[in-house]
Amino acid sequence: MATVRLDQKTRALVRAIPDSYHSALAKFFGTGPKDIDLAKQQHESYRLALEAAGIDVVMLDADHKHPDCLFVEDQAVIIDGHVLLPVPGHPSRVNEQPPIADFLVSKMGGAQICRMSGDARMDGGDILRLGDLFFVGRSTRTNDLGIEELRDLLAHLGHELRVIDIPEHALHLTSIASTPTDEVILAPEGYLSKDAFGELPEGCRVIWMPEEEIYGCNTIGLPGAKVLVADGYPHVAKTLESLGLEIILLDFSEIRAADGSLTCCSLFY
Ligand code: CIR
User: What is the pLDDT of residues 122-153, one digit of tens each?
Assistant: First the structure.
């Protein structure tokens, strides 16, 4: 998940892959998963990599009625210990949320929980945090009413929000950008204008990757200068190594097949 700073990453929620995963939505990176056993192995390697990096990981049971249920990032927005439960932007994904919400309520005692309502729509995958600056993608899943609810929460917390229009050929903001550290945004050429993120705080920058490495631009920065990276994107890997980060490569081919990226499969809480 892309809404917590590095120093806030200690506990993560993931959710098991359902037996119905072959029916997951797929329109952008993939044409649908083919090998569920392989997907489960890749997902297990992901969980183990998080644990090896010192993250305390809890795995929720799969919901076999919801083929996309593993993509927990989209179901909650956690910012500085506060939780916004969005109305997910695709109708087939709305009922994935209750067990995730129940888990967060039980674990985050004292947290302020806000529930989006009415016509507001948002997928958590549209939100990106760089230090204390936030970006939200206006996408096919996230609308202006949803963005206003996020803006209210961020205003309450004293954080700035900038809106980025997501091109039609991309799913979410986190499908095309990530923050491997609290100072760097990684994004592919050809999807966003060079000034899409606006003027960044001192010491921060966007590093643009070749367009064909778009999928590799979704990374998970972890404490201890480690970063999870999808295997197969050499420019991304080399760039992150040149920043002094230890890269942990993961084969995510069967998650990509359902348009899922690394950040989509976890919620740091
Ligand atoms: C979907 O279309 O909703 C899923 N198949 C993929 C969700 C990926 N989530 C994300 O980028 N945060």
Answer: 999 999 999 999 999 999 999 999 999 999 99
User: C-alpha distances in angstroms, 137 versus 125, 142, 150, 161?
Assistant: 9, 7, 11, 10
Size (the chain), residues: 269
b/e 188-217 (16+ beta carbons within 10 angstroms → b): beebbeeebbeeeeeebebbbbeeebbbbb
Please check the confidence at residue 111 and state whether its pLDDT lies above 90. no
Question: What atom in ligand 1 is closest to the CA of residue 27?
Answer: 2
Let me know if 263 is exposed, middle or buried by CB neighbors in 10 A (0-12, 13-18, 19+).
Answer: buried
The pLDDT of 73-98, averaged and rounded, is 97
Ligand 1 atom at minimum distance from 93 CA: 3
The rounded distance, in Å, linking the Cα atoms of 178 and 149 is: 22
Whole-number Å distance between alpha carbons of 212 and 62 = 32
- The pLDDT confidence band at residue 112, using thresholds 50, 70 and 90, is confident
The CATH code of domain 6-268 reads 3.75.10.10
Q: What is the pTM of this model?
A: 0.97
Ligand 1 atom with minimal separation from the 74 CA = 12
Ligand 1 binding pocket, CB closer than 6 Å: 24-26, 68, 71, 73-74, 90, 93, 125, 171-172, 174-175, 258-261, 264
In tens, the pLDDT along 178-194 reads: 999 999 999 999 999 99
Q: Which amino acid would we find at residue 203? A: G
